[in-house]
Amino acid sequence: MSLMLLISAGLFMRSLQHAQAADPGFSTRNGLLASVDLLTAGYDAARGRAFFETLLARVRQHPGVEAATLTNRMPLGFGGTSDLSAKIDGYTPAPNEEITLYYARVGSEYLKTMGIALVAGRDFTDRDTPERSDVVIVNETAVRRYFAGRDPIGGRIRLGGRPVEIVGVARDGKYSNIAEAPRPFMYLPMQQWFRPDSILVVKTAGAPTAIVPAVREALRSIDANIPLFDIRTIEDHLAIASFVQRMVASLLGAFGLLALVLATVGLYGVIAGIVSQRTPEIGMRVALGASHRDIVALILKQGLGMTGLGVAIGLVGALAITRLFKTLLVGVSTTDAVSFIGTTLLLVAVTLLATYLPARRAASVDPLAALRYE
Q1: From CA 270, how far away is CA 51, in angstroms rounded?
Q2: Which of 26, 37, 212, 323 is the most buried (most CB within 10 A)?
Q3: Is there a single domain that holds both residue 177 and residue 258?
Q4: Average model confidence (pLDDT) for the chain?
Q5: What is the pLDDT of residue 366?
Q6: How do residues 172-228 score in pLDDT, each as one tens digit?
Q7: CA 175, CA 138: separation in Å to the nearest integer?
Q8: 3-state DSSP assignment of residue 204
Q9: Can you tell me the mean pLDDT for 225-236?
Q10: pLDDT (tens digit, 9 = 90+) per residue, 6-58?
């Protein structure tokens, strides 16, 4: 049990390291996130569009702001994902194939603000309004899957019967969780696909929290009744993204260490009891010429036999149970050699020490006293 828990903890600790170093698909780290909800204030779509357009314009004017945009959800958040059924002009689906594209509603200059590389085409601008043709930006995976051998720019996608034109191709990223595989994704301009609740994303030149008063003032100057809430930095948001790996690694690590202590104490107690029972035998062996090394080797052999059996069972159990973690691991396989070998060596080393202490005491037995005990 100790080995199974320690190996599982080792996998998640290595997964946490990879998760923290993983590329989420956007490069902006120095920035601020703040939520705005117009629904409770009774804004309709027309007034809401005007509100967000004015808010972005005023926030961008601040000298500490490098870029600003809106989105209905941040990548790697806990809010889930949204998807739409689609038909792609020029692509013939396989029998029974249903095309589903995940998406996010975003504001103008979203790719620039987030630091998402533009592979082809353009980013959204303030000119992508409801009065103009509907547009969309897709990611590289969508292009590879549905536009093989074709130029996606200018291509058309029908979303619920609503045609949109592809104006850009963005680099792939992580959208729901850091461990996910690449999948087709698209960005829809918020002015054309309006919703009243949005996240304001501000890329800053200095400390992100330093511009909070300026953002509040910009919001207050438009409508003093609209609150700014859930304020956090992008770094804080990324720390939340690896929360699952950190939590599981901590819990399994704590239980694993506790199990290791219990296994060590238990093995020590068993070996000490065996040594006590075999004291006459050990005394006889010493009297017949057995050396200190011979006695230590005798006891170690018995202790390591128990350890070896426990390790064998633990490894089989670990191979079985770690398969359940496959979808939660980042950059680490369920049979990661470092975790399995390193943890096994640690357990063997600790149990070797637990066995050696009573073995050393057995080797120092006075043969005369042992024989009198007999």
Answers
A1: 74
A2: 26
A3: no
A4: 87
A5: 61
A6: 998 888 778 889 999 999 999 999 999 999 999 999 999 999 999 999 999 999 999
A7: 13
A8: strand
A9: 92
A10: 888 888 888 887 777 777 889 999 999 999 999 888 899 999 999 999 999 99
What domain range is 48 assigned to? Answer: 39-225
Sequence-distant (≥ 6) Cβ neighbours of residue 141 within 8 angstroms: 172, 182, 183, 184, 185
Last residue of a domain, one of 163, 194, 225: 225
Task: With beta carbons less than 8 A apart as the criterion, state whether 240 and 78 touch.
Answer: yes
Residue 258's identity, in one-letter code, is L
Are residues 201 and 311 both part of a single domain?
no
Do 298 and 349 sit in the same domain of this protein? yes
β-bridge mates for residue 156, sequence order: 165
3-state secondary structure 105-164: EECCCHHHHHCCCEEEECCCCCCCCCCCCCEEEEEHHHHHHHCCCCCCCCCEEEECCEEE
Do 71 and 216 lie in one domain? The reply is: yes
d(CA 157, CA 160): 10
**Encoding tokens for residue 226?**
């609209």
Q: How far apart are CA 318 and CA 299, in angstroms?
A: 28
The encoded tokens of residue 8 equal 């599982």
- Report the alpha-carbon distance of residue 55 to residue 9 in Å, rounded: 46
How many Cα atoms sit within 13 Å of 243 on the Cβ side? 10
Query: Is residue 31 a part of any domain in this protein?
Result: no
- Total number of domains in the chain: 2
